[in-house]
Automatic annotation (TrEMBL):
Catalytic activity: L-lysyl-[protein] + S-adenosyl-L-methionine = N(6)-methyl-L-lysyl-[protein] + S-adenosyl-L-homocysteine + H(+)
Biological-process GO terms, alphabetical: methylation
Function description: Protein-lysine N-methyltransferase. Monomethylates PRMT5, modulating its transcriptional activity. May also act as a histone methyltransferase. Plays a critical role in cardiac development. Acts as a key epigenetic regulator of gene expression during cardiac development via its dual activities as a methyltransferase and negative regulator of HDAC1.
Record-given protein name: Protein-lysine N-methyltransferase SMYD4
Molecular-function annotations in GO: histone deacetylase binding; N-methyltransferase activity; protein methyltransferase activity; S-adenosylmethionine-dependent methyltransferase activity; zinc ion binding
Any Pfam family the entry gives: zf-MYND
Region (Disordered): 134-170
Annotated localization: Cytoplasm; Nucleus
Protein keywords: Cytoplasm, Metal-binding, Methyltransferase, Nucleus, S-adenosyl-L-methionine, Transferase, Zinc, Zinc-finger
Entry GO terms, CC: cytoplasm; nucleus
The SET domain, residue ranges: 341-630
Keyword Ribosomal protein set for record: no
Amino acid sequence: MADIMSECTQVYRNLLFQYFEITESQDTEKLIDGEQLLDNVHSSLKSTGKFDEVYSKFTVFRDENNVEDMFKYFWNLEENDKFLNFENIPPKKSKRLSVLLLEDGKRFMENKDFVKALDLITLSLVYAPHPDILEKDHSDESSDEESLSDLSDLSNEDGSGEDSVPQWIKTNSSENKDNLVINISSEEKIEEIYDTLSLAYASRAYVLFKLKQYDICLKDINRAMENGTPNSVIREIFDMKRKCMMILQKQQDDNMKKSMDLLENMKSSGFSSEEYLKTMKGFMEQCYENKDPSTTKSFSQSEKMYKAAMEMTETELLFAYKNPLPPKIVESNPSIPCFSSAIKVQWTPERGRHLIASRDIKPGEVLAVEKAYMWTIDTQNPLTMMNFCSTCLGRCAAPLPCPQCSKVVFCSDTCRSTGLSTFHKIECHLLPTMTELVSPVLHRIINIIAQIPYSELKTKISQCKQEEMNKPRKHHGFNDHMIYDSTDYRTIYHLEGNFSRRLLQQLIHLCAIASIAVKMLIKSNMYFVDEEGIPFEPSESDIVFVGSVCLDQLNKVLCNASMVDEYQINVSELDEDPETKKVGSGIFPAICLLNHSCNPSAQLNSYGNTAVCHSICFIPMGGDVTIAYDSTYEISEVDARRDNLMKHYLFICTCEACVGDWKIDISKKPKLSTKKLMMHIGIDSGTEMALKIQLQDIIKNFQIVILDAKRNKFPSSVHINTIKDTIEFFDKYVELPDNLYFLAQRYLISLNFDFEMSACRYIREL
């Protein structure tokens, strides 16, 4: 049976990817693969004997740090004009494909496979022709004010019964067939009534109703009605809406009753008035949010969710995910608001800008909370693009489509309005082409440049160049008020790009990507516009200017982009470390100031397009605050680590783990470090003996914590404090590397998903 289910799942996944291949193949007849474009340039330079000349010129440009002349030279090469040409694919919808997807989704609905139906119908929404979005969309705020007084006959409906599938859902329904298969064989002019879009919203609402997602179901019903639901289905849609409202009202009433019962028990048990009022306020808030207050126990939110997820069916797990808000910094650094006051920037000629502790930092502290200046979703994975919001990078089970392109989705009307008015405004017209060119770095650079109107770009670049010449290196990126503002382009401009260290072949490759980026911006007719927004034909001077900015930023993007990910928590086996799923990438200008170490003192976690940095060891005042750009010392050998860092970041690592060639020896017992003891003034033989005894106690307590945590699945605050104390003691007094220290540190990191320190999804894998 398992083999059959696995085979069906694979067929279903192949079906999804087949749909993507169908729509892309229709659009890309004239487009050459992106890698082939670049290969053609290299091949031509070699066959015509120009390679030596180009290398010679590029060597001079690189040594002189002359980005502008390098791009200008490449732009004027015959190969650039001859081989880096492509047809720009405009954003479009496909009514034909939307109908096919909707029909297949309905087949799964008829078989009561609502999970697969949900995916296919969401794809149908993505491809369905869509009306323009007004500047302010109120769909999420729609009111449901219909009277409930006449709905007593519906009180037992909860969406889970075995009632027959409505006639309009069936794929063989003759009554509605004309509605579903309008223009199925051709892409004709979109009609005033967006029937495919409306029917897709109505169909998804039905799926969500059956999955008991009543809040989301109501929103889809409202959208179906707003987009002109056909008269043949309007009555059934309205009835479903009323059922949803009744169920939600009943849930709220039940939760209110539970709240009052719990409060009454508290009152009779002698709780203080202050405790009573505080609890009452919390219960009322939960009732308004339609949550059961009886589940409010002394568990972490993650523990409650995990316990619930263990009982969930595969269908229910579809909605078992968290997009938590990032934590707040207790006290911010006045000069770098996204940093804690516990860290500050320092600059030295040998190490450039880096971060150090301005006080002692304990394990587990929040050191930075920063929203990305630029972010992109993983365009190489269609399923990721359809399950994560392009604006906030949060997971969404019932997303909203872009009204123009079929490449991104949004989690809400708010995120959609934000995206359409900012980064996606230009990106929308370029994503179909960028996806085919298969260059994530091209997508990133387009999004950086597109955020600054061309009419403002020259002023900003001129300002940044003046700062580069006149400000101390330590202050690069700070504004006139000496604030490092992550939303300010100057923080991106002043990042390290290691231009002078790059191989010549790399620079030729980057020039080609910059050239493609400029050509895409020209073809969009949306970037080269004057202050009134009227497009103009850019001069060579305009092109070279923007191209050199693209080339400069490409170097910096390659060295500074961070992955945005999501934890995948297997509810079948909590003992396993959660896996991470790539969602996209982002540039976090302040976090980019963190240097690398193969034995890092801090860890990054993703909250959508916001990154949070936690300390994972004890950092003494003046100590380095570092993260791992690549693998750490316990995962790979020193030579492999150094090779990877040189390849991607262009430096040789000299951290203590590399210099000392650290390796984990599981047979080695923890012992005090003579070097560390000598650093602590006043430690005599008596103190050393006391520390040895304390070390044995630390080891014993840590082992108890590990065993207890395995039994109880979720650690208590006492357990967490013991782990932190273990790490701090080892950092201060014990010789490293050490296996027990490594285990304690990994355990602290694994607590990230337990204590809402990142986005996560619950899955079940045996």
